[in-house]
Amino acid sequence: MNKQLLIYFLIFFSGAFTINAQSKKKIEIKYAGRLNVDEVKYPGARILTRDDSQQVHIGHESIELWCDRAIHYGNENFIEAYGNVRMKQADTVNMTSKYIEYSGITQLALARGEVVLKDPKTTISSDTIYFDRLKQEAFYRSNGMVVKDSTVTITSKIGRHYMQENKFKFVENVVLVNDSSTINSNYFDYYSDTGHAYLFGPSTITTPESKTYCEKGFYDTENQVGYALKNARINYDNRIIEGDSLYLDNAKNFASASNNIKVTDTLNHSIIKGHYAEVFKGKEKDSVFITKKALAITVQENDSIYMHADKIMVTGKPENRIVRAYYNAKIYKSDLSGKADSIHSNQKTGITKLINLSKFGTSDRFSAKRKPIMWNVENQMTGDTIHLISNPKSEKLDSLLVFENAFIISKDTISENGYNQIYGLRLKGLFNEQNQLRQVDITKNAESIFYARDDKQELIGIDKAKAGSINILFDQGAIEEYTRYNQVDGTLTPESQFKERDKKLRGFDWRETERPTSVEDLFKDDPPLELPKIKGLADYVPPKDFFDEALIERINQAGSHAFNDIHLINEHSINNLLKSPNNFKKNVWKKTRVIVINANEKAPNGDKITQTIKAKDSSKDYKYLSQTILNTKGSFNFSVWLKGTGNLQLKFQENGGDYTNYKQENITLTKFWKKHSINTIKENDNHKLRIVIIGIDQDDDFYIWNPTLTEISKN
Asked: What average pLDDT does the segment 101-113 reach?
């Protein structure tokens, strides 16, 4: 039998005997090429090394582990594995790294160095991963990446995988990338089996066509649909959609919104508001539909135009938008207002059309049926169809066209019941620079009634006539001058001789009470609106600590080799005997010829360090930092993370007497964070124990983080 094989059998049988004699949960050494023992460096441990044929093979219940070298602490049921380490749990977990430590008691594994953990659906990679086999949870907090089926990649500072639920919780700088979108968030829950993501805090969903922002939301990353709540906003090229609740279907370039909606067209300087909206974006469809107190606003430098209706639809590409407002449509501008069954506005041509829908009933032009209507200063204009034409570039009103049954009415400025009236088949009006109606031409079968006054504004009589056409000049809404062409007949009659029934042309319909005089007036005829209550999503619930009380209890019961770096996660969960570990300004820290200065550095766990230590400018020796505890005996471990330049010493020392050094270690600092630790066993000498960081010279430049003192066992 060769020597290596003999060593292996000795290891195997001695290990097997120990296992059988004790618990079935003991770590089992299934194969090792060589066995060494170094009681100075690894007291109570066996050093296992691979041979040329295969790696060291270790088993524990459903866990199989392979590595190039292992340190096995049999009494503590603890293993440290080095070099090309692979850990496998049945067919559910496969983890590779440079180093793994695993406790058969706690069933907790710590993996370091290019760690990759795979389960059937995902692959997790990080510099450090913790794996709790009992809870079936994996955890990292120093930046990691999760890949699902090579189609989804998620990076974050902190990540936790609940394997039985196929669920991840990500915290801080979370970024999900797939072939259709990128999601950024600070708090992010993700289900790997469905691709469902829950977003909390400021979050964005970015696709080639849109960018969605919310502070609470849901997104189906596979089907590209989701909801956005709380300050929700979607950017579609030149459109911004805001609302209490947004639904998005990025596969169809569709979004809908409910309650307090605002759609901003940044290219055409327009805004649409309401309480329910649907938006399509794409080559074939580019539209916005909005209802429930729908309001369209064309933003102009001096005077915006407001349009309201039961429903408003905006269609067309950005350079050719068409706005359609229908059912009880109204328009308002400080110097112009109107209403109709529907209003169509072409933002490219500058033409706004007021149209009434065809209704059953009389076609008699003299009947007072509700026609489209506009008001400008003191003038009321009606007709079967009204076109308002403006200059899209200058935003100035240019002209007004009224088709069929054009009727202009203005109240006489003095007479109580007198009205100036003009009727004809067609009307063309021109506006001045102040957007006031300056000139009007009435053509075909024109009729008129004017209250004629002299220079003193005294009434001469009522002028009633018929003509082929009439030209009128207005000044501040009042008739300044009028000219009749092809007059058929006409009379100027004193008011006292004018019959009351003749003071109005047939079809006269004075509708001043309908005139909107403010933006609020646009809504005065609307029925009451009760908005639906948005159910929303559940608020974010921070997860319980990975290192919760149950796990800490497992670790405390396991002994000194249960887990070496637990303080990286929760420094207060391991019964740190030091008070205010990272607040050196506290009086519990004795500062001898050193001072606490402000710092701005990241700790190994990513937390911010705000304090560090500097030596005072003094020629005296013994510049140090120390803290005393009450214990007078026991077995202790002291650890601290250091980074910088210089040389220090760590000491266990008695507090009092001759300040005996129980244990000390000399340290040469490096530019990388490194954890340094020392152990000591203190007999009862009636003096308290203190830890000391000493040798802090004037030229030293270093950072210190998380000094931790733990009691390993009691004597």
From this structure: 91
